[in-house]
Amino acid sequence: MMHTYPSRIIEQAVEEISKLPGIGKKSALRLALHLLKRPETQSLQLAHALVQLRTETKFCPKCHMISDGDLCGICASTKRDEKILCVVEDLRDVMAIENTGQYTGLYHVLGGIISPLAGVSPSDLHIDSLIQRIASGEFDEVILGLSPTMEGDTTAFYLTKKLAEYSIKISTIARGIPIGGDLEYTDEITLGRSIVGRVIYE
Amino acid sequence: MMHTYPSRIIEQAVEEISKLPGIGKKSALRLALHLLKRPETQSLQLAHALVQLRTETKFCPKCHMISDGDLCGICASTKRDEKILCVVEDLRDVMAIENTGQYTGLYHVLGGIISPLAGVSPSDLHIDSLIQRIASGEFDEVILGLSPTMEGDTTAFYLTKKLAEYSIKISTIARGIPIGGDLEYTDEITLGRSIVGRVIYE
Q1: Where are the zinc fingers (C4-type) (chains A, B) (predicted)?
Q2: A15 vs chain B: nearest CA distance in angstroms?
Q3: What are residue B169's DSSP bridge partners?
Q4: Which candidate in A3, A4, A9, A62 is best for mutational testing of the B interface (most B CBs within 10 A)?
Q5: Nearest to B85 by CA among B159, B179, B194
Q6: What does the pLDDT look like over B147-172, one tens digit per residue?
Q7: What residues are paired with A156 via a beta bridge?
Q8: Does domain A66-195 have CATH number 3.30.10.20?
Q9: A1·B29 Cβ contact <8 A
Q10: Each residue's pLDDT tens digit in chain A (202 positions)?
Q11: Of A51, A67, A99, which has the smallest distance from its Cβ to B43's Cβ?
């Protein structure tokens, strides 16, 4: 019986690929066999991109977003509202918010979210530099753009406490029923929150 | 608005990762950001494993299975039934059948399956060498171990025609209701086949 792989090379590839989140041994083997059927250049380019990603990626010294140059494009821009700062978990959130076209302020990328279960504590995140930016007094408002999850709420609570001593307006992105969402099928926690946090017509 | 990535390096990584089957741009970005948070060695080891996989993997000259040495472990073994040959699509099928512990014969790995939609024709597969192995007269039976899908059936039909001129017993793995499966919830094609292909008690 073959409980192991017929080749050390493929076993090693499966081992490394399956270290990625959400990819099990079976999917890893499927991906490895796929690469074996494709031209050699595809695997080499993928490998090269991964090495570059991890060894050459730079981060903006102001907002910690991934950036090719020194300052990122948003921090370097003169067209942004430099009085508003939006705190987010990572680059994906910046891209999602930028794609709405509704926000013109600056960002601060935490590089993660407080999660005792995943072993992520406040000291693992870019919180000290956030406090410094707020302490400098250059911002009027800080928006906590964190996901409405247990970890997001924990992080928001921690930041709110930390920022309490500075005279800055703190806000959070609105939570409620998604546009186009069906009230009847909304989970009760979201629905409850959207009633408590109702917006009064003015 | 940022419709593109803030860094050429991350864009390139996303581009290459999302060429893998079943991984879209969003998942690719998630994987890239994950690697950026992990130690550098993980990305370098993954890249190294991918290069090795594509440049150093060897194939058994007899059955075309991936193998480290010259002959694969199964072809080199003296404990296998050398009169039975099982034709399969790829390595995963060999591993699945070996794990059952119910088969002691040899294998022939086609390296794919006939699929006009995916542009895979018989000439892309190891069919010529299969015919040669059968023509040599060393086998009593060839088992078509192909999936009961449109492509699997097409390939089985093609091989059956090709092998018709040789005096060899051709069989296929049994199709029917899976063990533990519920007759009521079995799709009608499977159920229909399992009635037509019923096994008579002897």
Answers
A1: 60-75
A2: 9
A3: B141
A4: A9
A5: B159
A6: 888 899 999 999 999 999 999 999 98
A7: none
A8: no
A9: no
A10: 345 788 899 999 999 999 999 999 999 999 999 999 899 999 999 999 999 999 999 999 999 999 887 899 999 999 999 999 999 999 999 988 888 888 999 999 999 999 999 899 999 999 999 999 999 999 999 999 998 888 999 999 999 999 999 999 999 888 887 877 787 787 888 888 777 777 777 6
A11: A51
| Residue whose entry in the numeric block shows the structure tokens 């996989």 | B53
Confirm if B50 and A43 have CB atoms less than 8 A apart: yes
When scoring A2, A42, A55, A98 by the number of chain B Cβ atoms within 10 A, the one with the most, hence best to mutate, is A2
Q: Which of A35, A57, A101 sits opposite B53 (nearest CB)?
A: A35
3-state secondary structure A27-93: HHHHHHHHHHHCCHHHHHHHHHHHHHHHHHCEECCCCCCEECCCCCHHHHCCCCEEEEEEEECCHHH
Check CB contact under 8 Å for A47 and B50: yes
Instruction: Give the residue carrying structure tokens 């199964």.
Output: B74
Nearest CA among A71, A129, A140, A68 for reference residue A105: A140
In the three-class reduction of DSSP (H, G, I as helix; E, B as strand; rest coil), residue B142 is classed as strand
List all residues of chain B from 108 to 167 with a beta carbon under 8 Å from chain A: 111-112
CA distance B4 to chain A (A): 8
How many contacts (CB atoms, under 8 Å) link A and B? 186
CATH, range A8-56: 1.10.8.420
**Region of residue A101 (phi > 0: left; psi between -120 and 50: alpha; otherwise: beta):** left
Where, residue-wise, is CATH 3.40.1360.10 in chain B? 66-195
- Our CA-based measurement puts residue B1 at a distance from the nearest CA of chain A, in whole angstroms, of 5
> Tens of pLDDT along B49-87?
999 999 999 999 999 999 887 899 999 999 999 999 999
Cα distance from B124 to chain A (closest Cα, Å)? 11
- Measured between beta carbons, which residues in chain B are less than 8 angstroms from residue A27? 22
Domain span(s) for CATH 1.10.8.420 in chain A: 8-56
Segment (H or E) for A141: strand A141-144
| Number of other CB atoms surrounding residue A32 within 10 Å | 27
Q: Which residue has the tokens 């076209």?
A: A101
